[in-house]
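Journal club side-thread
Mid-discussion, someone asked how the predicted structure for our own chain would compare to the paper's figures. Pasting it here so we can look after the session.
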Amino acid sequence: MVTFQRYSITAVFMAAAFLISICFVQNLYAAAYYVETTGTDSPSVDCASVASACLTISYAFDKAADGDDIIVGAGVFKDSLHITKSVNIAGAGTGETFIESDDYELGAILIEQLLPDDPAPAVRISDLTIQNSASQYTGGITVNAESPLVLENVVITNCSGQLVGGLFTRGPTILENVTINKNTGTSAGGAFFASKKGSTIVNSTISENFAESVAGGIANVAILYMANTTVSGNKTNGSAGGIVATVLPYTHDVILYLSNVTITENHADFNEDGDGTTGGLYADNPTSIVARNTIIAGNYDHNPDSPIADCFGAISSPYDNADFGGFNLIGDSTGCVLDPNMPGNILNEPALLGPLADNGGPTRTHAPEAGSPAIDGGNNLDGAGCRYFEFDPTIDGAVITDTFLIGDQRGFMRPADGNNDGAARCDIGAYEIACGNGVVETGEECDNGNLANDDGCDATCRTEEPPPGDTGGVGNDNNPADADPGIPPDGSVDAETGVTPDADTDTGGVGNDNNPADETSPGAGCSLIIRK
């Protein structure tokens, strides 16, 4: 098993940490209540341990006081949570703990004040999946108060609502290592509707959601900060397949800040009736879009009359300072109004991204392919690359300064030398290309120096390029028409051709230099690595 060196974005998102601290003042006397599928909801059960656990989360919540913890074990919990006091709810992991509801009025989780004069509850939810829930409002989570909400290591999937599919919030919200996918909203926002207060999304993936009217992925009518995040494969029959930022009668200062975000493969006007526009990012006036090191490319507008694939609206630099903006990769700039002072934008070129996949880390990403202009294409002026917007969560829209990003969406180190020119530079988008995993491990003479021809790195610790004539990408792609020489070690079967090479004359594999005496020795540059 390869152990990846990961860098927690929590350590650098100081604004997010500050917001958590003001919302969740540590309760030194907090109690913990346990929920297990083998538990019992009974007055005789105190729920104070796994051995005496509650059966439902709702029963544990009724026992809890403000600031208490609810620890949920593995299993599927069919429950609808009406949260009216501050709690921390922690599961056993997104693949272990599942909450689903059949309560059409509440959905899976409704957070609100019990009485109008009550303080808005502060809620933190971590390490679980919310799934298979429907509601007349929002299927997943509805925050019907100006309540602070933190979601960390959470999946919201296969939920539906007459308004929003996955998540609706009215208070300050932080999403970290969150996946919101395959949800459906009839109105606005298949995945997430951010309303009124500032929200932050980091290290997260918004994918494969659907909205009937507008915003297949995210609808933002407030202040939204996004960094190291992927918005992919969302669809709407209306406008804005990926993200819409728009002003409503009750909102003001609608701003969307984008740092190293990837917006790709989203679809607008999916039913092709001509009523929608803009596959990627749509911004109404007077909405402000501030973007740096961001990919908006490979999106689709199915409007038969006037398609706008990637973006519509004005995109600018922060603080009117060009050094801290720009360096965005926009596949089709039709419809975009770009600040002429922004440097480094790459326009009307394909991003050359791989499919949405598990590339390491807790959320799925699009890895740039060989030759992608995103690789080492980010802002590096005066050390200004790889930054995010730090803000004061107590003041709507108040950006304080910029702070360096030291990791990508997966938690892998930024910046890295992805194009082997000797200089580490921030990539555009949520993914940072690097040869290796950031650490020289036992058996390596250099970072990830090995002879595997399908992991992006060669034996001299350089990024692999496709062999001549190989049209299937780097490495063994199982395409006999473009067989990659040099893949199999001696005596093994080439997965592309089905041929076993001759150990003495084989021109590929371990140690092959047409010298039969050293057919099993590793090539020069790095020691042979065997990983289990």
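Post-session note: The longest helix spans residues 14-23.
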